Amino acid sequence: MTLAIFTTLGYLLGSIPFAVIVSRSFGLADPRSFGSGNPGATNVLRTGNKLAALLTLLGDAAKGWLAVWLASRYGTETVLIAATGLAAFLGHVFPLFLKFHGGKGVATAFGVLLGLSALLGLAAAATWLLVALITRYSSLAALSAAISAAMFSWWLLPDTITAECVSAISLILIWRHRSNIANLLAGAETKIGAKKS
Description:
- The chain has one domain.
- It has helices at 2-14, 18-25, 41-45, 50-74, 78-93, 106-116, 118-135, 138-156, 160-176, 178-186.
- It contains 10 helices and no strands.
- By secondary structure, it is mainly alpha-helical.
């Protein structure tokens, strides 16, 4: 019963579409109507409004962290905490409030990782930042961070259940980037900060 309550709460938190909410607050176009069509910080950045993109990034990360924190605060079972984090990530990717058409989940995944282990979250963030600075490809940075998170989870986390949930998040994140992978291979991927019509 407790597991059902917390995973439902995590999913609903993850479903909050900060990209759409922030864009409307700033009078910007719906992020689903241009660029990649994904309601996420990278697509909001394509409007040229860095503050809106930053707020979207923070909101998406915060909901992932909050879900894990609540589960950790009011529950002690490892499976409860890990499942709630996974549910929050799935909520972003398949949000109830956007008819299950969500973003790719990078920021929310980071928030979940940070909630599970600060060191794991920082390791994934460092990987993203390094690859992004070198290549200026957000998608390649996200893919690299996802792979590193899955690898580091088996080393930094104390139990296999949580590591398995992190690996599941990483696999889903990679799957959500399948079109980006095709674009990267074709040399057609848009770089960070570039507007895409």
